[in-house]
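User: Design a sequence. Structure:
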């Protein structure tokens, strides 16, 4: 019947329109990687592929005095034309229930990587970090989570002179005595 043919033609047209609206993943993107997750905006058809953590290495041990710590990612990718920005998050738990630092609106860096410098972190702790790529209209997936450990904070006490004190006379060779610092 004519109605059946029209319905089949409409279904075929709708299927082709959906296929044409589907974004194509950009070439050269490592999709086999576990952290190459992507999100497609249903309104615009734009796909955003997650950034990948680069440094510090997973489980890195960082001395407290080596701060500030710089986090670096390999840039995310989009099929759209909008500029990408990045939100870096640092937490004391892997589920990101307690965000210690968040740096949002970081412009994409040159050379395929983006970096952010963190504020000083407390010592003797393990931290977890991730990044999310965003456009003006959509948010991409979070990157894989990485961890690093900040070593203990070293604080030295003030040394104290024990002798000679108060203008006392000293003989050559002068022997100075001090109290050990804490």
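Assistant: Done.
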């Amino acid at each position: 019947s004519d109605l059946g043919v029209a319905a089949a033609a409409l279904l075929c047209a709708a299927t082709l329109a959906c296929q044409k609206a589907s974004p194509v993943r950009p070439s050269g993107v490592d999709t086999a990687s576990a952290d190459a997750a992507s999100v497609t905006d249903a309104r615009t058809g734009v796909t955003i592929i997650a950034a990948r953590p680069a440094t510090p290495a997973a489980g890195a041990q960082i001395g407290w005095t080596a701060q500030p710590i710089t986090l670096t990612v390999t840039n995310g990718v989009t099929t759209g034309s909008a500029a990408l920005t990045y939100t870096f998050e640092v937490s004391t738990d892997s589920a990101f229930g307690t965000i210690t630092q968040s740096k949002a609106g970081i412009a994409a860096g040159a050379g395929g990587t983006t970096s952010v410098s963190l504020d000083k972190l407390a010592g003797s702790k393990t931290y977890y970090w991730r990044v999310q790529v965003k456009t003006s209209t959509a948010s991409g997936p979070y990157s894989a989570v990485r961890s690093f450990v900040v070593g203990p904070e070293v604080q030295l006490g003030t040394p104290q002179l024990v002798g000679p004190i108060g203008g006392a006379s000293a003989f050559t060779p002068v022997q100075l005595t001090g109290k050990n610092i804490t």
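The chain has one helix and 14 strands. Residues 1-35 have pLDDT under 50 and may be disordered.
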